[in-house]
Amino acid sequence: MKYTTLTLALCSSLALISCGEKKTSSTDTPPATAVTLESIIVKEAPAHAQSITDVRKSIEVGKKVTLSGKIMGRKDPFVEGRALLMLGDPAIITSCDLRPSDSCQTPWDVCCDDNEDIKAATATIQVVDQDGKLIKQGFKGVHGIKELSQLVITGTIAEGSNADNLLINATAVYVKQ
Question: Any idea what DSSP says for residue 77?
Fold first, then answer.
């Protein structure tokens, strides 16, 4: 049940993304430089990062935000082959590796936290190309990104975001080392 809600939110995000895809003609303008995950990795953390919980207090589609968090919130926080991941607010939810005597094999699933807390403290981060299409490249492994990595994301609140689902179109990603 815990994962069903999160899985539905993630699937809803993907469905909204795919509905917005537009077909373009190959005879239109020449292709712009392709957006890759490597191209949006930044070397310095963007200033004034907010927590996910603070960003959720004022969801306005198109609003530019900078937020920080850890990759966590579900057993599979990445979507293989797609630039999409789940970021959690470590001030609200706790990865199992930080719980004494917890031997959880997937500490990023935050299985000890309440489902409502997880829902309120997570955001779906995606990277889209110039046409608004989700990039077909997975986050995992890029610049050492893995479960529980701490990230600072700059981007805009994407269409389809609401009180139950915060979706961010990332334009810059900083990976804390």
Answer: -
Q: How far apart are CA 64 and CA 51, in angstroms?
A: 14
**Burial state string for 25-60 with b = 16 or more CB within 10 A and e = fewer than 16:** eeeeeeeeeebebeebeeeebbeebbbbbebbeeee
pLDDT at residue 9 is higher than 70: no
Q: How many CB atoms lie within 10 A of CB 11?
A: 11
Beta bridge partners of 66: 154
What is the distance between the terminal CA atoms of the chain, rounded to a whole angstrom?
34
Query: Which of 135, 149, 171, 134 has its CA nearest to residue 73?
Result: 149
Quote the strand ranges of the chain, DSSP E: 41-42, 50-51, 64-71, 84-88, 122-126, 150-157, 167-175
Largest CA distance in the chain: 61
Burial of 143 (0-12, 13-18, 19+ CB in 10 A): middle
Global pTM?
0.82
As given in the structure block, the two tokens for residue 76 are: 């599979």
| Rounded percentage of the chain residues whose pLDDT exceeds 90 | 76
